[in-house]
Input
Amino acid sequence: MALANAQMYLFLVMISFMFVHSMANFNYGPWGSPGNWNKTNFPNGNNHPNATQTSNKFNVGGSENWRYGFDYMDWARKNGPFFVNDTLVFKYDPPNSNGGFPHSVYLLPNYWSFIKCDFRRAKRIANPNQGAGEGFEFVLKKTQPYFFACGEHGGIHCNNGTMKFVVMPLKRWPY
Output
């Protein structure tokens, strides 16, 4: 019971963090009312790549692509917030005869499956060959948490915490 409570607390903290982090891009007026969103809330006046009113495309992992040993939770935190209709592009090498480990992309159904890397009810959205070339594209269609992980080799890349991440796309403000 204590473990379930701790996991629920962790889930709530994670969702709260994602919400607060996404709201950091907004200027607020007196008494917390929304002010003007000027897209310059980042160091050196740089605009966040997602500060537009249009959907954006993000290469998962940036130049590192979808590979073993990369911290995708950190990547998601640094590249967020994500919005409905943004596209995530998963690029990875197809299986080869040199013994390289293949990768895939699974969408896990809930937080518990994500934490435990339980793929029994997960949906494979990209097989090991779909990441080649321009990669596999996934559009964030709803305001809901999306739990992504690599499920190859019994989910070993997920179990060691490297090839998994969660995003919670937001609706765009109607400015």
Notes: Residues 57-167 form a domain with the Immunoglobulin-like fold (CATH 2.60.40.420).
